[in-house]
From TrEMBL:
GO CC terms: membrane
InterPro entries with a match to the protein in the record: Claudin_CS (IPR017974), PMP22/EMP/MP20/Claudin (IPR004031)
Classification via Pfam families: PMP22_Claudin (PF00822)
Subcellular location as annotated: Membrane
Organism: Adineta steineri
Name of the protein: Claudin
Sequence intervals crossing the membrane: 78-100, 107-128, 148-170
Amino acid sequence: MKVVAIIAGIILVVAWIFYVASNAVPSWSSLSSGGYTYTYGLWQACTTYSTASNCGNINCPASGNDNGYCGRLMAGRAFMTLACIFSGIAAICLLVCGFVDEKISRILTIAGKVLAIVCVIMGIIGVATGGSAQQVFWQSYNQLNFTAGFGLGIVAIIINIVGFIVSLFVK
């Protein structure tokens, strides 16, 4: 049993949880105005007044003059989804690597390490483009606040980097 591989796998499972949460929550940015709070995520937008909240999907037209918002939002969605997928697969590879024989373990170790660094790259691009989409959307307001989803994405990247570094010590 390879303890380091199991530790790296567990760290990447935690990163996966943060990536999925970041991708799913409808609160990457928020704006409060006149008693209303507007929150936007990568997939949904919500309007809250008092205690009542109403959420709906964000639909981007195939073409339109949106100042690059939809393109950035779609890129953020794609890269965050890829980060979710790759971090999960990397975690599985490293966890399995901890329990199998040397021959299969070598292949899974290499796959886990490669997927872990690819996931870091996808996460960085996803958070950057998702955050950029939020900034472009709210550019005419001075009150943009990045919220939970954006923060979860940053934490996921940091945990993912730690998982990748730990995976480098797997023999």
